[in-house]
Amino acid sequence: MSTQTRRERERAERERAIIAAARDLALAEGWDAVTTRRLAAEIEYSQPVLYSHFKGKDAIMAAVAVEGFAELATALVAARASAANPRQAVADVAAAYTTFAEQRPALYDAMFTLAVDLPFATQGVPTDLARGFAELAEAVRPAAGDDDLEAVTETFWSGLHGLVTLMRSGRLRRADHDRRLAVLVNRFSR
Amino acid sequence: MSTQTRRERERAERERAIIAAARDLALAEGWDAVTTRRLAAEIEYSQPVLYSHFKGKDAIMAAVAVEGFAELATALVAARASAANPRQAVADVAAAYTTFAEQRPALYDAMFTLAVDLPFATQGVPTDLARGFAELAEAVRPAAGDDDLEAVTETFWSGLHGLVTLMRSGRLRRADHDRRLAVLVNRFSR
DNA sequence: CAGCAACGCTAGCGGTGCTAGGGTTTCGGT
DNA sequence: ACCGAAACCCTAGCACCGCTAGCGTTGCTG
């Protein structure tokens, strides 16, 4: 029994090492730099070992994304908790969201622009993702009015996502980001 | 002179054939299916010919994107022109935008999610892109209030872009699209 | 008609994600 | 204690990618 458990533990550790290596490499040089060969070299095993843990590169990215959901959710919870009033809550949550995307671009990409094989609008949504979404929902709830809260939240989220992706790809001037964010917050407060 | 002009004409035709082939292939099977080899086979020339017309695959995608800007601008102009009132103009323009993205996903990707080497937030923006942006601006102008019109337009655009990309990547339920669109339109009208 | 320049081809480079097959090590039963 | 079996991981390679060097041919020019 002891050797069995040891091997399982080592295997789990190696899996974490793969995810950590992918995450670090992606944060440092972007996802294009994350190749199965470099990943294998990083964990000091051969390429095929990766495939005994994950179905493919997409699955590795998905695993990294799941970690990202936890980070984002934590940031959003903190932002909303420290807000003085409902209006400020929307602003702080929005700022926290875009800051996260700006500071962890590779993580954000894995979560929201790449890696499609994660469950989103279906059952089995990662709990941390649901946590983050709930924070957005609570922030905009006072401003929902007659509209369905879920629809308002999703639309608010889309606005944030659009701002982030268009700015990051050079389609929007970074200098005007605060102004745009203020507009969005304005439209989803009161 | 005659042979010279003939060759230039043939060259121009071949360039158009490359763009058309890339566009058709992308619309039919997505950009992943557009490889330089398939493209070369499609125009019945060898691979290196492509590189005498374009710097690389990205440049070909950029050329396709430019054509897309014209289509989108036309759709937006038509939508706004036929609207009965300002409120309806925002709704129609928004619907036209998302419909375009939904019906021409590959085109939309080339324009707004891939191909970064196009000028956007700088000088030299493709005129058709500016035309489309201007239509969005005119639509939301009545609802800008004290906010800077450009910032409002960019934010509205971001909302549309976010809705489209999150839905297309499976992050938002397609069934609720109209509801979300209505929310966005609501927040950028009146 | 000779020389030259433009042109488009074949072949190949270095890279990608992924997999088949075989050795080696470790385990379990006699 | 040993032997068969199973688990494990590595080497080598497949098919593909974007892109380019170098050559042969074609067709124009003086």
UniProtKB/TrEMBL annotation, chains A, B:
The keyword Transport does not apply. Residues 35-54 bind DNA. InterPro entries: Homeodomain-like_sf, HTH-type_TetR-like_transc_reg, HTH_TetR, MT1864/Rv1816-like_C, Tet_transcr_reg_TetR-rel_C_sf. Keywords: DNA-binding, Transcription, Transcription regulation. Residues 12-72 form the HTH tetR-type domain. The keyword Transcription applies. It comes from the Bacteria. GO terms for molecular function: DNA-binding transcription factor activity; transcription cis-regulatory region binding. Coiled coil: none annotated. It holds the Pfam family TetR_C_33. This is TetR family transcriptional regulator. It comes from Micromonospora arborensis.
